[in-house]
Amino acid sequence: MARRKLTQEEEQKRLEVKIENENRILEAFSSMPCFAGIDKCKLSLQDFSLECKEIKNLKYDSTCNLKTSIDGKLLSLDIKSEFFGKITISFDESNFKTSYCYIELIHGGLNIETAGIEGIKSRLANAIDFIKNNYGILITYSTALFLEMELAYTIAFDKTPNLQLRSFLHKCLSSGYPPNFGNEKSKRTTMTIQF
To answer: How far is CA 144 from the centre of its chain?
Structure first.
């Protein structure tokens, strides 16, 4: 299937986004040549409670997947967002199930930096605020427990490293996932290895 030709405005917008991304990458790596830490993680919010203003409005939102009982009680809710990741809440206690609230946190936007524990706390607080402000859902919890954690090491090179070095780094630092070496022609090359 052939792609449609972009208009001049769309091409200009794409070029502006590429230039902005390049500048953000150069700025991020000007202070440090590499980042190591937590990239994506999944948390379980313990002893959580939920306050919803209008459940009816959520049914028509394309970013939400909402299930309610016949009497209108909330059974489950999934929200996906490019800003924070995904949250899954379930109050379904049939067949010996228990209520849970899981949140997958990602780095919204250009994903070149990793975070430590303080960064994850900040991402979680921002996600809770985002859900409150954009969906009218107030979530409170006592503790957040890590269920999954993706560790990453991102390094920048002034010149594109040769294939042998890239292959060596991949074999030494990864869990066997195929590398994405790309064909980007740039002043600096970045490589992310996920454990």
So the answer is: 17
Contacts of the segment 49-52: beta carbons below 8 A, 24+ positions apart: 49/139, 49/140, 49/141, 50/74, 50/89, 50/101, 50/137, 50/138, 50/139, 51/137, 51/138, 52/136, 52/137
14: left (phi over 0), alpha (psi -120 to 50) or beta: alpha
For residue 151, list its beta bridge partners. Answer: 38
Residues in the chain: 195
Q: pLDDT tens digits for 87-133?
A: 998 887 777 778 889 999 987 666 666 778 888 899 899 999 988 88
More confident residue, 194 or 128: 128
Q: What residues have CB less than 8 Å from 19, skipping those under 6 apart?
A: none
pLDDT of residue 182 exceeding 80, the answer is no
